[in-house]
Amino acid sequence: MTAPLEVPPAEVEATPEAVLTGVRKIEGRSLGQIAWMRLKRDKVAMAGAVVVVLLIIAAILAPVIVSLAGHPPNDFHYKQVDAEKQTPIGAYGGISHDFLFGVEPINGRDLFSRIVYGARISLLIAFLATMLSMVIGTVAGVIAGYFGGWVDAMISRLMDIFLAFPILLFSLALVGAIPDTAFGLSGDALRIALIIFIVGVVNWPYIGRVVRGQTLSLRQRDFVDSAISLGARSPYIIYKEVLPNLVAPILVYTTLLIPTNILFEAALSFLGVGVRPPRASWGGMLNDAAHWYQTDPWFMLPPGLAIFITVLAFNLFGDGLRDALDPRSH
Fold first, then answer.
1. What's the distance, Cα to Cα, between the start and end of the chain in Å?
2. Tens digits of residue pLDDT in 102-156
3. Domain carrying residue 16
4. Which of 12, 191, 230, 253 has its CA 20 to 30 A from that of 101?
5. Residues 255, 265: contact at Cβ < 8 Å?
């Protein structure tokens, strides 16, 4: 006689019926609970998630943080700068208990405050642009994958056109040519809105291709055929049957697209067509620091590390989330 199958204690639930009958009820877990358990075991991904959360909190609470541990980002502190060399006084860019990351050359603006406020710009543009890409890519990918035929062919060719488009050159030309006022917006608000629109629109094919491929696979599943045989209409099937099964790949790819958009915004600011000074942005700070790399090399380090740590944290979290949501990886 074979031994009875033993269920681990963590997988069972003791109930009054179980006490009377001696049978223990198996406790089920949802896919979300299973993914969370896997993600918690990935220490690297959790470390990335912690950094991401801290960055988001710092961006939201930037005025509070700066008031407690810094100075206003656009205040000049000429006493912290050597009048002759125009470089910060002291080692490592003028780091002190009053200026945690040092100060800028010439005007002595607080680097810590500008890094914190720069996180607001980078994360705002990256998140909103990624959301726009996700919406467009999901809609286009689902429609192409579900209906197929000439609809799929048209949307796929449109994706190819966008993927072959020189995004950076187009952004440089468009952002640089915008007027001071348009669409009821002006100044930095107009420039930020335009950057979000450009980045979001040109990046949707990446998510669209992933969603299209997943939808083509789901379209052949039995539960979709069953819904069709019961007379369900296409919008209902897409909304109730297909989209719920696309949440995991969309979530993973969205997480991985955010750092790409952060780098894109930093590149635009570095090239001088992003957020205009004196508003702080990481790319703009790197552009300013490029002129001082010989006399004040420390100036490049805080914004460079901010971009590096942010992109690395999002990528580590995205990789861990992908593994946690993919049952084939376990």
1. 32
2. 899 888 899 999 999 999 999 999 999 999 999 999 999 999 999 988 999 999 9
3. 1-41
4. 191
5. no
Query: How many domains does the chain contain in total?
Result: 2
Do 187 and 294 sit in the same domain of this protein? yes
Query: CB-based contacts of 229: which residues, under 8 Å, 6+ apart?
Result: none
> What distance in Å separates the CA atoms of residue 24 and residue 141, rounded to the nearest whole number?
45
Our measurement of the distance from residue 301's CA atom to the centroid of its chain's CA atoms, rounded to an integer in Å, reads 22
Q: Count how many Cα atoms sit within 13 Å of the Cα of residue 98 in the half-sphere of its side chain.
A: 10
- Give the SS3 label for residue 182: strand
Same domain, 25 and 160: no
Separation CA 179–CA 279 (nearest Å): 19
Tell whether 73 and 34 lie within a shared domain.
Answer: no
CA atoms within 13 A on the CB side of 324: 24
Q: Is 30 helix (H, G, I), strand (E, B) or coil?
A: coil
Distance CA 57, CA 119 (A): 10
* Confidence band for 17, pLDDT divided at 50, 70 and 90: low
Neighbouring CB atoms inside 10 A of 162's CB total 16
- Shared domain check, 3 and 107: no
Is 166 in the same domain as 31?
Answer: no
Q: CB–CB of 317/251 below 8 Å?
A: no
Q: What angle do the packed helices 62-69 and 111-147 form, to 10 degrees?
A: 160
Contact 223, 241 (CB under 8 A): yes
**Residue 213's domain is classified under what CATH number?**
1.10.3720.10
